[in-house]
Input
Amino acid sequence: MERVPIVRLLSMAVTVALDELHEELARQGHPNLRPVHGYALNAISNGADTASALAPVLSMTKQGAAKVVQLLLEEGYLVEVAASDGDARRKPLALTARGREVIDLSERLQDGIEASWEEIAGARSVATARRVLLQAATATSPPGSPPPVRRGW
Output
C-alpha cells in the first residue's frame, strides 16, 4: 500500500469507528442519531445550552444547529427549560434521561470499539497511539485544556 498521510488515516479511522458506533446505536434503539447529534449532545452536556451556542461547536449556522436541536427534541434526547434570566427568546436546552442514557451507551460502545482495535493491533500499540495522539492534539493547547471535539469536514 502506498504511503497514506496520517491525517487521511485518522479520518479513515474516525469514519470506520463512527459507522460502527452508529450501526450499534441503531440496533439498540437509536436509529435516527447521526454523528452530528452525538457532537451536539456532548456539547450540550458540556454547557452549550442553546442552538446559538451549539452552532460554532458544530461548525454550522445557527439555523443548521436549530435543525439538529429540533430532531433531538423530537426524539426525546433534549428538553427546553425556562430561561432563568427572564429572556423569553432564550431557550436553554437540557439533556433528558434518554439523552444521558445514549451518551453513556455511546461511551460503552466506544470502549468496545477500542477493545476490538486492541485485538487487531495489540493493547500496547493502541496505548502508544493514544499517547501520541494526545500529545499531538494538546501540543498547542493551554495545559489541562484539550482542544474541543468538533465535526471535521
